[in-house]
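so my prof wants the structure for this chain in the C-alpha coordinates format not the other one, which i didnt know existed until like an hour ago. anyway here's the sequence
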Amino acid sequence: MSELSFNGLIGAIKSVDSQFCESAVRAVNVGLTLRNWCIGAYISEFELYGEEKAKYGEKLFERISHSLKDLGMKRCDPRDLRRYVLFYERYPEIEKILPDSVREQYLSVCSGAELKSGSEHNIQIQGIRESLTPEFRIPPEKLVTSLSFTHICEIIEIESPLKRLFYETECIKGTWSVRELKRQIDSMYFERSGLSKDKEALSVLANSGAEIQSPALVIRDPYIFDFLGLRSLDVMDESSFESAILNKLEEFLLELGHGFCFEARQKRILIGGEYFAVDLVFYHRILKCHVLVDLKMEGLSHAHIGQMNMYLNWYRENEMTAGDNPPVGIVLCPRKDEDIVHYATGGLSNEVFVSKYEAVLPDVKELERFVLNETNVLREAGVEYRVNKSD
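here's what i got, hopefully its the right format
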Protein backbone atom coordinates (compact mmCIF):
# COMPACT_ATOMS: atom_id res chain seq x y z
CA MET A 1 0.00 0.00 0.00
CA SER A 2 1.44 3.37 -1.04
CA GLU A 3 2.02 6.01 1.63
CA LEU A 4 -0.79 8.53 1.92
CA SER A 5 0.34 12.14 1.57
CA PHE A 6 -1.18 14.96 3.59
CA ASN A 7 -2.81 16.41 0.47
CA GLY A 8 -4.08 12.94 -0.38
CA LEU A 9 -5.62 12.68 3.10
CA ILE A 10 -7.40 16.04 2.71
CA GLY A 11 -8.61 15.06 -0.75
CA ALA A 12 -9.94 11.71 0.46
CA ILE A 13 -11.82 13.32 3.36
CA LYS A 14 -13.31 15.94 1.05
CA SER A 15 -14.34 13.25 -1.42
CA VAL A 16 -16.13 11.10 1.15
CA ASP A 17 -17.78 14.19 2.63
CA SER A 18 -19.14 15.15 -0.80
CA GLN A 19 -20.36 11.62 -1.51
CA PHE A 20 -22.26 11.29 1.75
CA CYS A 21 -23.63 14.82 1.48
CA GLU A 22 -24.99 14.05 -1.98
CA SER A 23 -26.43 10.75 -0.74
CA ALA A 24 -28.13 12.42 2.22
CA VAL A 25 -29.63 15.16 0.06
CA ARG A 26 -30.84 12.59 -2.47
CA ALA A 27 -32.42 10.46 0.25
CA VAL A 28 -34.21 13.44 1.80
CA ASN A 29 -35.49 14.62 -1.56
CA VAL A 30 -36.74 11.16 -2.57
CA GLY A 31 -38.61 10.87 0.72
CA LEU A 32 -40.17 14.30 0.26
CA THR A 33 -41.15 13.56 -3.35
CA LEU A 34 -42.78 10.24 -2.49
CA ARG A 35 -44.57 11.78 0.47
CA ASN A 36 -46.06 14.50 -1.72
CA TRP A 37 -47.10 11.97 -4.38
CA CYS A 38 -48.92 9.90 -1.74
CA ILE A 39 -50.70 12.95 -0.37
CA GLY A 40 -51.85 13.76 -3.89
CA ALA A 41 -52.97 10.15 -4.41
CA TYR A 42 -55.09 10.06 -1.26
CA ILE A 43 -56.73 13.40 -1.97
CA SER A 44 -57.42 12.39 -5.56
CA GLU A 45 -59.03 9.13 -4.42
CA PHE A 46 -61.16 11.00 -1.89
CA GLU A 47 -62.21 13.53 -4.55
CA LEU A 48 -63.35 10.73 -6.82
CA TYR A 49 -64.76 8.16 -4.43
CA GLY A 50 -64.89 9.55 -0.90
CA GLU A 51 -68.21 9.03 0.84
CA GLU A 52 -68.21 12.61 2.15
CA LYS A 53 -66.92 14.35 -0.99
CA ALA A 54 -70.21 16.13 -1.71
CA LYS A 55 -70.23 17.53 1.80
CA TYR A 56 -67.10 19.64 1.20
CA GLY A 57 -67.49 20.55 -2.48
CA GLU A 58 -65.20 23.32 -3.66
CA LYS A 59 -63.93 23.89 -0.11
CA LEU A 60 -62.34 20.43 0.08
CA PHE A 61 -58.74 21.63 -0.24
CA GLU A 62 -59.27 24.42 2.27
CA ARG A 63 -60.76 21.96 4.78
CA ILE A 64 -57.93 19.46 4.29
CA SER A 65 -55.35 22.24 4.63
CA HIS A 66 -56.90 23.52 7.85
CA SER A 67 -57.04 20.03 9.41
CA LEU A 68 -53.43 19.20 8.48
CA LYS A 69 -52.14 22.51 9.84
CA ASP A 70 -53.91 21.77 13.11
CA LEU A 71 -51.82 18.59 13.23
CA GLY A 72 -48.62 20.60 12.76
CA MET A 73 -47.96 19.64 9.14
CA LYS A 74 -45.96 21.94 6.88
CA ARG A 75 -46.47 22.62 3.19
CA CYS A 76 -50.16 21.87 3.17
CA ASP A 77 -51.68 25.12 1.88
CA PRO A 78 -54.48 24.55 -0.64
CA ARG A 79 -52.07 25.51 -3.43
CA ASP A 80 -49.58 22.89 -2.27
CA LEU A 81 -52.27 20.23 -2.02
CA ARG A 82 -53.50 20.92 -5.54
CA ARG A 83 -49.92 20.64 -6.73
CA TYR A 84 -49.58 17.22 -5.06
CA VAL A 85 -52.74 16.00 -6.77
CA LEU A 86 -51.45 17.22 -10.12
CA PHE A 87 -48.15 15.44 -9.45
CA TYR A 88 -50.03 12.20 -8.80
CA GLU A 89 -52.06 12.59 -11.97
CA ARG A 90 -49.03 13.40 -14.12
CA TYR A 91 -46.85 10.57 -12.76
CA PRO A 92 -48.98 7.59 -11.62
CA GLU A 93 -46.09 5.20 -12.38
CA ILE A 94 -44.33 6.38 -9.20
CA GLU A 95 -46.54 3.87 -7.39
CA LYS A 96 -44.04 1.18 -8.47
CA ILE A 97 -41.20 2.61 -6.37
CA LEU A 98 -43.07 3.27 -3.14
CA PRO A 99 -41.65 1.49 -0.09
CA ASP A 100 -43.53 -1.77 0.52
CA SER A 101 -45.39 -0.58 3.60
CA VAL A 102 -46.44 2.68 1.94
CA ARG A 103 -47.43 0.88 -1.25
CA GLU A 104 -49.62 -1.53 0.71
CA GLN A 105 -51.40 1.39 2.32
CA TYR A 106 -51.81 3.11 -1.07
CA LEU A 107 -53.22 -0.04 -2.69
CA SER A 108 -55.56 -0.50 0.26
CA VAL A 109 -56.95 3.00 -0.24
CA CYS A 110 -57.31 2.40 -4.00
CA SER A 111 -58.94 -0.99 -3.60
CA GLY A 112 -61.40 0.48 -1.10
CA ALA A 113 -62.35 3.11 -3.66
CA GLU A 114 -62.65 0.45 -6.34
CA LEU A 115 -65.08 -1.60 -4.28
CA LYS A 116 -67.29 1.44 -3.81
CA SER A 117 -67.25 2.51 -7.46
CA GLY A 118 -66.92 -0.68 -9.47
CA SER A 119 -64.76 -0.72 -12.59
CA GLU A 120 -64.64 3.07 -13.01
CA HIS A 121 -61.58 3.29 -10.82
CA ASN A 122 -59.44 1.05 -13.04
CA ILE A 123 -60.55 2.92 -16.14
CA GLN A 124 -59.66 6.26 -14.59
CA ILE A 125 -56.19 5.16 -13.49
CA GLN A 126 -55.50 3.50 -16.84
CA GLY A 127 -56.52 6.67 -18.63
CA ILE A 128 -53.91 8.65 -16.71
CA ARG A 129 -51.15 6.15 -17.37
CA GLU A 130 -51.60 6.16 -21.11
CA SER A 131 -50.49 9.77 -21.48
CA LEU A 132 -47.12 8.50 -22.81
CA THR A 133 -46.07 4.98 -23.78
CA PRO A 134 -43.52 3.40 -21.41
CA GLU A 135 -40.60 3.69 -23.84
CA PHE A 136 -41.08 7.47 -23.89
CA ARG A 137 -41.09 7.93 -20.12
CA ILE A 138 -38.17 8.34 -17.77
CA PRO A 139 -38.14 5.48 -15.23
CA PRO A 140 -39.68 6.69 -11.95
CA GLU A 141 -36.54 5.79 -9.98
CA LYS A 142 -34.45 8.02 -12.23
CA LEU A 143 -36.99 10.83 -12.04
CA VAL A 144 -37.21 11.07 -8.25
CA THR A 145 -33.48 10.57 -7.61
CA SER A 146 -32.37 13.09 -10.25
CA LEU A 147 -34.91 15.88 -9.82
CA SER A 148 -35.84 17.67 -6.62
CA PHE A 149 -39.49 18.19 -5.85
CA THR A 150 -39.04 21.87 -6.67
CA HIS A 151 -37.90 20.85 -10.16
CA ILE A 152 -40.95 18.63 -10.44
CA CYS A 153 -43.24 21.51 -9.41
CA GLU A 154 -42.05 23.47 -12.44
CA ILE A 155 -42.46 20.53 -14.84
CA ILE A 156 -45.92 19.37 -13.77
CA GLU A 157 -47.38 22.74 -14.79
CA ILE A 158 -46.63 21.83 -18.43
CA GLU A 159 -49.68 20.36 -20.15
CA SER A 160 -47.97 18.44 -22.98
CA PRO A 161 -46.54 15.03 -21.92
CA LEU A 162 -43.91 15.28 -24.67
CA LYS A 163 -42.85 18.73 -23.52
CA ARG A 164 -42.62 17.51 -19.92
CA LEU A 165 -40.44 14.63 -21.06
CA PHE A 166 -38.20 17.02 -22.97
CA TYR A 167 -37.53 19.18 -19.91
CA GLU A 168 -37.15 16.15 -17.63
CA THR A 169 -34.49 14.76 -19.97
CA GLU A 170 -32.64 18.01 -20.53
CA CYS A 171 -32.75 18.92 -16.85
CA ILE A 172 -31.35 15.55 -15.77
CA LYS A 173 -28.74 15.53 -18.54
CA GLY A 174 -27.60 19.07 -17.81
CA THR A 175 -27.99 18.79 -14.00
CA TRP A 176 -29.80 22.14 -14.09
CA SER A 177 -30.68 24.04 -10.97
CA VAL A 178 -34.34 24.95 -10.45
CA ARG A 179 -33.60 28.51 -11.50
CA GLU A 180 -31.97 27.25 -14.69
CA LEU A 181 -34.93 25.00 -15.46
CA LYS A 182 -37.31 27.96 -15.11
CA ARG A 183 -35.07 30.05 -17.35
CA GLN A 184 -35.01 27.38 -20.05
CA ILE A 185 -38.80 26.97 -19.94
CA ASP A 186 -39.29 30.74 -20.13
CA SER A 187 -36.90 30.94 -23.09
CA MET A 188 -39.06 28.36 -24.94
CA TYR A 189 -36.16 25.94 -25.35
CA PHE A 190 -38.56 23.13 -26.30
CA GLU A 191 -40.18 25.15 -29.07
CA ARG A 192 -36.85 26.44 -30.35
CA SER A 193 -35.48 22.90 -30.40
CA GLY A 194 -38.42 21.74 -32.51
CA LEU A 195 -37.76 24.47 -35.07
CA SER A 196 -33.98 24.19 -35.07
CA LYS A 197 -32.18 22.35 -37.88
CA ASP A 198 -29.10 21.83 -35.69
CA LYS A 199 -30.44 20.55 -32.38
CA GLU A 200 -26.99 19.58 -31.07
CA ALA A 201 -25.66 23.09 -31.58
CA LEU A 202 -28.75 24.53 -29.90
CA SER A 203 -28.29 22.17 -26.95
CA VAL A 204 -24.67 23.26 -26.54
CA LEU A 205 -25.72 26.90 -26.69
CA ALA A 206 -28.60 26.40 -24.24
CA ASN A 207 -26.34 24.68 -21.71
CA SER A 208 -23.41 27.08 -21.98
CA GLY A 209 -23.24 28.99 -18.73
CA ALA A 210 -26.18 27.06 -17.27
CA GLU A 211 -26.47 27.07 -13.48
CA ILE A 212 -25.69 23.54 -12.31
CA GLN A 213 -27.48 21.83 -9.44
CA SER A 214 -25.45 21.02 -6.34
CA PRO A 215 -26.19 19.62 -2.85
CA ALA A 216 -25.69 23.12 -1.43
CA LEU A 217 -28.44 24.46 -3.68
CA VAL A 218 -30.79 21.58 -2.95
CA ILE A 219 -30.49 21.85 0.83
CA ARG A 220 -31.66 25.48 0.59
CA ASP A 221 -34.86 24.35 -1.09
CA PRO A 222 -37.81 25.68 0.99
CA TYR A 223 -39.54 22.30 0.69
CA ILE A 224 -36.50 20.63 2.25
CA PHE A 225 -36.54 23.19 5.10
CA ASP A 226 -40.06 22.32 6.12
CA PHE A 227 -39.68 18.59 5.55
CA LEU A 228 -36.69 18.46 7.92
CA GLY A 229 -38.11 20.99 10.37
CA LEU A 230 -35.31 23.47 9.66
CA ARG A 231 -35.29 27.23 9.43
CA SER A 232 -33.64 28.86 6.42
CA LEU A 233 -31.19 30.51 8.83
CA ASP A 234 -29.97 27.06 9.95
CA VAL A 235 -28.45 26.38 6.54
CA MET A 236 -27.37 29.86 5.51
CA ASP A 237 -23.71 30.55 4.90
CA GLU A 238 -23.04 32.52 8.10
CA SER A 239 -19.59 33.60 6.87
CA SER A 240 -21.05 35.48 3.91
CA PHE A 241 -20.72 39.22 3.70
CA GLU A 242 -24.47 39.76 3.58
CA SER A 243 -25.20 37.66 6.66
CA ALA A 244 -22.41 39.34 8.59
CA ILE A 245 -23.90 42.78 7.97
CA LEU A 246 -27.41 41.59 8.80
CA ASN A 247 -26.19 40.23 12.13
CA LYS A 248 -24.92 43.67 13.10
CA LEU A 249 -27.80 45.55 11.49
CA GLU A 250 -30.36 43.72 13.60
CA GLU A 251 -28.55 44.73 16.78
CA PHE A 252 -28.02 48.27 15.50
CA LEU A 253 -31.70 48.94 14.82
CA LEU A 254 -32.74 47.50 18.17
CA GLU A 255 -30.19 49.64 19.99
CA LEU A 256 -31.50 52.84 18.39
CA GLY A 257 -34.37 52.71 20.86
CA HIS A 258 -36.91 54.21 18.46
CA GLY A 259 -39.55 51.58 19.07
CA PHE A 260 -38.23 48.65 17.00
CA CYS A 261 -39.37 45.20 18.10
CA PHE A 262 -37.65 42.34 16.28
CA GLU A 263 -40.06 39.89 14.64
CA ALA A 264 -38.33 37.76 11.99
CA ARG A 265 -35.21 37.19 9.95
CA GLN A 266 -35.23 35.77 6.41
CA LYS A 267 -39.04 35.90 6.56
CA ARG A 268 -40.31 33.74 3.71
CA ILE A 269 -43.47 34.86 1.93
CA LEU A 270 -45.27 33.16 -0.96
CA ILE A 271 -46.26 35.43 -3.87
CA GLY A 272 -47.60 33.98 -7.10
CA GLY A 273 -46.19 30.52 -6.47
CA GLU A 274 -42.66 31.81 -5.74
CA TYR A 275 -41.01 32.21 -2.34
CA PHE A 276 -39.23 35.42 -1.39
CA ALA A 277 -37.28 36.22 1.77
CA VAL A 278 -37.37 39.56 3.58
CA ASP A 279 -34.03 40.00 5.34
CA LEU A 280 -35.33 41.54 8.57
CA VAL A 281 -38.84 42.25 9.86
CA PHE A 282 -39.58 44.52 12.82
CA TYR A 283 -42.78 45.83 14.37
CA HIS A 284 -42.58 49.49 15.32
CA ARG A 285 -44.55 50.15 18.51
CA ILE A 286 -44.68 53.94 17.99
CA LEU A 287 -45.68 53.90 14.32
CA LYS A 288 -47.88 50.83 14.86
CA CYS A 289 -46.63 49.20 11.67
CA HIS A 290 -44.25 46.59 10.31
CA VAL A 291 -40.82 47.74 9.14
CA LEU A 292 -39.22 45.56 6.47
CA VAL A 293 -35.47 45.78 5.87
CA ASP A 294 -33.78 44.42 2.74
CA LEU A 295 -30.04 44.44 2.09
CA LYS A 296 -28.81 44.41 -1.50
CA MET A 297 -25.19 43.75 -2.40
CA GLU A 298 -25.18 45.91 -5.53
CA GLY A 299 -26.22 49.46 -6.42
CA LEU A 300 -29.83 50.47 -5.88
CA SER A 301 -32.07 49.79 -8.88
CA HIS A 302 -35.74 50.12 -9.76
CA ALA A 303 -35.99 46.32 -9.40
CA HIS A 304 -35.03 46.58 -5.72
CA ILE A 305 -37.65 49.25 -5.11
CA GLY A 306 -40.26 47.25 -7.01
CA GLN A 307 -39.47 44.16 -4.98
CA MET A 308 -39.76 46.04 -1.69
CA ASN A 309 -43.09 47.53 -2.75
CA MET A 310 -44.26 44.02 -3.59
CA TYR A 311 -43.31 42.95 -0.03
CA LEU A 312 -45.14 45.96 1.40
CA ASN A 313 -48.28 45.18 -0.58
CA TRP A 314 -48.16 41.58 0.63
CA TYR A 315 -47.81 42.69 4.26
CA ARG A 316 -50.58 45.22 3.81
CA GLU A 317 -52.96 42.51 2.59
CA ASN A 318 -51.86 39.59 4.74
CA GLU A 319 -50.32 40.85 8.00
CA MET A 320 -52.03 44.14 8.87
CA THR A 321 -54.54 43.88 11.71
CA ALA A 322 -57.01 46.34 13.23
CA GLY A 323 -55.14 49.41 14.48
CA ASP A 324 -52.05 48.84 12.31
CA ASN A 325 -50.70 51.47 9.96
CA PRO A 326 -49.38 50.49 6.51
CA PRO A 327 -45.92 48.88 6.55
CA VAL A 328 -42.77 50.71 5.54
CA GLY A 329 -39.62 49.33 3.94
CA ILE A 330 -35.93 50.20 4.16
CA VAL A 331 -33.60 49.16 1.33
CA LEU A 332 -29.86 49.25 2.08
CA CYS A 333 -27.31 49.03 -0.73
CA PRO A 334 -23.60 48.96 0.22
CA ARG A 335 -21.36 49.39 -2.82
CA LYS A 336 -17.71 50.25 -2.25
CA ASP A 337 -17.62 54.03 -1.67
CA GLU A 338 -21.35 54.50 -2.17
CA ASP A 339 -23.90 53.56 0.48
CA ILE A 340 -27.53 54.22 -0.30
CA VAL A 341 -30.54 54.03 1.96
CA HIS A 342 -34.02 54.16 0.46
CA TYR A 343 -37.27 54.35 2.38
CA ALA A 344 -40.07 52.66 0.48
CA THR A 345 -43.21 54.50 1.52
CA GLY A 346 -45.38 53.81 -1.52
CA GLY A 347 -49.08 53.55 -0.72
CA LEU A 348 -49.00 55.81 2.36
CA SER A 349 -51.95 58.16 2.35
CA ASN A 350 -50.37 61.64 2.32
CA GLU A 351 -47.17 63.65 2.69
CA VAL A 352 -47.82 64.40 6.37
CA PHE A 353 -48.05 60.67 7.07
CA VAL A 354 -44.83 60.05 5.15
CA SER A 355 -43.10 62.80 7.13
CA LYS A 356 -44.23 61.19 10.38
CA TYR A 357 -42.69 57.89 9.31
CA GLU A 358 -39.41 59.50 8.30
CA ALA A 359 -39.23 61.47 11.56
CA VAL A 360 -39.44 58.34 13.71
CA LEU A 361 -37.41 55.95 11.56
CA PRO A 362 -33.60 55.98 11.77
CA ASP A 363 -31.86 58.96 10.19
CA VAL A 364 -30.66 58.20 6.66
CA LYS A 365 -27.16 59.53 7.37
CA GLU A 366 -26.96 57.43 10.52
CA LEU A 367 -27.82 54.30 8.56
CA GLU A 368 -25.36 55.20 5.82
CA ARG A 369 -22.58 55.64 8.37
CA PHE A 370 -23.43 52.27 9.91
CA VAL A 371 -23.41 50.44 6.59
CA LEU A 372 -20.17 52.12 5.47
CA ASN A 373 -18.44 51.33 8.76
CA GLU A 374 -19.52 47.67 8.82
CA THR A 375 -18.60 47.24 5.18
CA ASN A 376 -15.08 48.55 5.80
CA VAL A 377 -14.63 46.43 8.95
CA LEU A 378 -15.69 43.26 7.15
CA ARG A 379 -13.48 43.95 4.14
CA GLU A 380 -10.48 44.58 6.39
CA ALA A 381 -11.22 41.31 8.17
CA GLY A 382 -11.19 39.51 4.83
CA VAL A 383 -14.85 38.50 4.80
CA GLU A 384 -15.85 37.51 1.30
CA TYR A 385 -17.84 40.21 -0.52
CA ARG A 386 -20.29 38.43 -2.77
CA VAL A 387 -23.96 37.78 -3.33
CA ASN A 388 -25.09 34.39 -2.09
CA LYS A 389 -26.88 33.35 -5.29
CA SER A 390 -28.60 30.35 -3.77
CA ASP A 391 -30.56 32.41 -1.21
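also thought this was worth mentioning. The longest helix spans residues 6-49.
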